[in-house]
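A quick word before the example. In earlier lectures we treated sequence and structure as two separate objects. From today on, think of them as two lines of the same record. Here is Cobaltochelatase subunit CobN written that way.
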Amino acid sequence: MHLLVREIRTLDEQDQADDLGHAPADIVCLSFSDSDLATLAAGWDAMPDGRPTLRLANLARLRHPMSVDLYAEQTIERSRCVLVRLLGGLDYWRYGAEELAATCRRHRIPLALIAGDARDDPRLAELSTVPAPVLARLDGFLRQGGPHNVAGALRLLAHVAGREPDDGMLPVPVPVAGVHRAASLDGRPVATILFYRSHLMAGDLAPFEALAEALEIRGLATELLYAASLKEPEAAEFVERRLRLTRPRVVLNATFFSSRRDAAGSPLDAAGVPVLQLVQAVGSEVAWQSSRRGLSQTDLAMQVVLPELDGRLLATTVSFKAEQASAGLEDFAQVINVPHAEGISLAADRAAGWARLGVTSAADRRVAIVLSDYPAVGGQIAHAVGLDSFASLSAILRILKGAGYTTGGSTDAAELTRRLCHDPATPYLSLAEYAVLFATLPAAVRAATVDAWGPAGSDLSVGDGHFTLRHARLGHMILAVQPDRGAALDRKAGYHDPDTPARHGYLAFHLWLRTRIGVHALVHLGTHGTLEWLPGKATALSAECLPSALLRGIPVVYPFIVNNPGEAAAAKRRLGAVTIGHLTPPIVGAGTHGAALELERLIDDFAASDGLDRRRGEILRGEILDRAESTGLLAESGVRRGDADDADALARLDAYLCDVKDLQIRDGLHVFGQAPRGHRTLLEGMMRALPDADPAALSVALDASGPAEAQALLAALDGRFVEPGPAGAPTRGRADVVPTGRNLFTVDPRAIPTRAAVLLAEKASAALLERHRQDQGDWLRRAVIDLWGSTSLRTGGEDLALALLLMGVRPIWDSGSGRVAGIEIVPLAVLDRPRVDVTLRISGFFRDAFPGQIALFDQAVATLAARDEDADWNPLAAEHGTEMPSRIFGPAPGTYGTGVEDRLARGAWTDRDELGRAYLDGSSYAYGGGRDGTADATGFARGVAGADALLHVQDHAETDLLDNLDVAAHEGGFAAAAASLGAAPALYHADTARPDAPRIRSVAEEVARVVRGRAANPLWIEGMMRHGYQGAAEMARALDALHGYAATLPVRFDQQFELVFEATLGNEMVEQFMRETNPAARASMAARFDEARRRGFWQPRRNDVGLVLEPDAS
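And the structure line, produced from the sequence above:
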C-alpha cells in the first residue's frame, strides 16, 4: 500500500519571519492586544524591587511558523512561566498555540492560554499546562482588568514561576461597561463615542478625548462610554440602556468586529441612529500615507467588513500606532494610539452632518438628488444598472412630498426627463464665487487640478463667467446630472483613473452643493456614479482624497442594485454611504421569435412524424436545415452543413434553440420604491434556484421590497438607522436578499473561497476541462482567468476556487472560524491529469478587497513551482530555479478597468492591435510575492501569449455580456492582446447562473446567444419600451457591447448586427419610439451601426440601411 503525501502550506507562512531576540525570563506574556501588553508593563513597573523578570511581545510578530519555532527555542524553552492571551481564540494563532503547548509540555513549563474576549474557548484550556483553578484566576484577573487585578495576575504568575508564594488573591470585579464622561443634556444633539474598556485601563484615551473636543466644537454634546466587549451580555445591556436614556443623534464606535446577536441585532441599534465606525489603524501613519489601499488586511476585516454586517458607516482613521519606550522592561516599547488630527476632523464633520440631518425638520431639509452620466455616451444620462432612473426619481419625489418635504413643481417622469436631458444646461455658480470655494480645498488638490486642467475659466462647462449644469430646483430639492469628471472626450477613461483629479466643473458642483446650497444630504440615484471612484485611498481616506475633500460631512444615501456587492462596497468605504439595496428587474424566459420560432415549430413537426413517415421526415429535416442555414441559426449552433450528418446537425440545432429559449432576460426595469411589475417571473426565477423554498414566503418578501426601499430612504434622510442586509443575486438562490431596502453588506473576505464555493467550482472546472479537450483534443495546460471582485463576493469565491482546482490545489480552512488557513497540494496520482498553469487577471476592486486571496494564490504558484514534478504534468515546475514570475496581474495600483473601455466607447482606435496594446498596458502590473503593483509588461505579455485559453465567469442570470462594454473590454481586450502577440487562444465564457449545471461556451457563441435571446428579442424590446428614455438607452448599450466584441474578437458578427438592426432602427415602430423618447440614443445607435459598416464588421443585407442611418434621419 502506497500512502500519497499531500503537501500543505498555511497562510501564516506568507508573513515575514521575525526574530524577536528575546532572552528567557521568569514570565513571558504574549497577546495581540497592545492594551494588554501596556497594562502588564504598567503593573510590572509598580511591583517592588526583586520582581520577576518579564518579557512582553505582540503575537502579530509571531505569525510566521519559523518565528514561532525560533521564539520557542530561544525564549520559551528556558523561561519559567508563559501566559498567552488570544483575542479571537485559538483560531487566530493555532500553530503558535499548539507549538508552545508542545514545547512547554516537553520542558515542563507552566503555560496558560486564555481567551482575549468574552467568548470562552475550551480548546485553550486543553492546551494549557497550569491547573484549572490557576487558569480560571488568571482569566478572571485579565478579563476584569484594572491595576489591582493586573497586579494580582502578575503575582500569581510569579508564584507559578516559582518566584514567590501564592497570596491567594482573587479577581475583583470591575464594571464591564460604564460612562467615562457624561454628556451635558442641554438641548444640543448628543454624540456618543464608544471604546474598549482596555483603553481606559491602559490610559490610552487621547484619540477619543480629541474626537470629543472636535465634536463639541461642532455643536454636539459628547458622551464617552466604554465596554469590555459588546459580546459581553452585561456590557451590551448597559450600552443599550444608556443609548435609550441619552438618545444620541449619532454614535461613533471604536470597537472591532460585528456585535450582532442573530435576530436581536447589535446593542448599538438601540439608539436608532447612524453608527459611524472609527478606525484605529494597527500600523503607523507613515505606512498609511504611502498606501493606496489605506488599511491592512487585518484592519480591513476587523474594522471595516465585519462592522458593515451591523450596518455601521465607515468614517476614517482617527489614530495610528506609535511606540513609547518602557521605563524598565528590556526589549519592550509600549505601543499607544496617537490621535490623527486630520482623520478626527473628517470623522467629526461626518458625525455632525448626520446629527444635523436628524434635527432638521423634513420641510426644511435640502436634498440633492444626483443622476449619473455614466458611461457618458449619447442618450445615456441617468443610467443606473437595472433601474428606470426617471421613473424612480418621480417616485422618490412623491415619497418625499408625502413625508413633508418641500418639493415644488411637477414630479412627472417625462417632464423630469425633458428638464434634465433635453433642456440646455443653466448657470449656477460664478467663477468669482468658485475661486473663493476652490481656495478652501487642500493645497495638494488645488495644485493637481490646475496642473491637469489649467485655470477654471477654461473648463468646458463655463459660459459667460459662470459654471453651467443640467439641473432643476423643485422646492428644497436639487435635481442634477453629475458633471463630467474629465473632458468630454476622455471622461469614460477617467471614471476609474486614480491620479487625474476631477475637472473644475466637477469640483464646483460639489462645493456649490455643500457651501452655497448647504444640502443636508446627497442622494445618488442608482449604480453607479463617479464620486466614489475619485483619486484617493481605497479605504480610510485622507483629507486630500477627493471624495473626502468634496463631501466633508455631507451624508450620502445611495440606492444600489442588490446584486452588485463590490461596487456598493466602494461607495460604502469611500463615501461612508448608506447603500440601500433595490430589486433587480423582473426576469422572464427569452422564448423564441422570428426564424427561431418557425424552426422550433418545424422541429416539433419532424418529431411528430419521426418513425411514422420516413420519407416525409427526411424532407422535413432537409427543409429545417436549409432554413437554419439561410437564417444563420445553423452556424450559431456550431454546425457547418456537410461537416456533420443531418441527424447530428438537427440534434445540435435543436439543442441550441432550447439553449436560447431558456435564456433568462430582463422584462423591463425596476422602479425604486415600487413592487416589481414582474413579481411572478422574478419569483419563478428564484424558485428555480431554490426548489425547496417556500414560494409563499418568497412572494411576501418580494411584495415587501418596494415599500421597504421607500421606508429605508425616509429613514436615512431622517438621520435614522437603516437595517443592514446582504447583497447577492436573487436568481442564484439568494432568498436572504429580499426584502430589499436594507443597507448592503458583503462577506468576510477571509472566508473566501468558501467550502460551498469549492464544491460548485469542481463542476465548473470539470466542464471547462472537458470543453477544451473536445475543442482542442488535448488537456488545458495554460489559462488566464478574468477575476472580478463583485463576482467573488456574490459566490463566495467560486472563480478563485476554480483557478486553484485547475492547478491541482485545494484551500484548507480553520475548523473553528471557517476562514481560509492555507492550501493543500493534490498529488498528481490523485489529480490524474496535468496541472494547469493559471494566470489571474484581477480587477481593481479584487485587488483592493482581497489581499489575502492574492497571497493565497501566490503561495499556490510558488509551492507548485518548487515541486519535483515533470514539466509536462506541471508546467510551473519549469520555472523552478529561476526568479519566479508573477501569475497575478491587474491594473496599476489605485486604477480600475482595462484601458480598452474608453477607446471602444469613443471609437478612438485605428486597429485591433491598438486595442490589444491598451489591454496589455492597463493590465501589466504584478501582485503577490512582495509585488504590490510592480510594472511587469514582459511577464504579463508572456502569460497572454502562452495561454491556451481565457475564461470569464458570469455567475447569475440578471446580467449578460452585452449589458455594457465592461465584459467586452475584458474578454475582447484579452483576445486583441493575444492576437497582437501572434497567439490565438480559446476564449471561454462560463455561465454558472445555475451553479449545479455550469455551461462553458465560447465567447462568440455567447454573443450570438444573447443577441438572439435578448438584444434582438421583441419580448425584451417591448419591456424596454415601457421605460421610455431609459429603455431606449438600454438598447443602445447592447449595440455598443456587440460592436466592442466585433472590434476585438477574430470573429465576424454580421448576422448579429443584422438581427439587432432589424429589431431596432430597422423596425419602424421601434425607430419611432427612439426618435420620440431618446433621440440621442437613436443617433448613437445610428453612428455605431455606421461605424460597424465603415470598419468592415458588418455587411448589411438591406440596400436602404444607409438612408436609415443618415444623421438627419432622426
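Notice the following. The first helix runs from residue 34 to 46. We will return to this example when we discuss secondary structure assignment.
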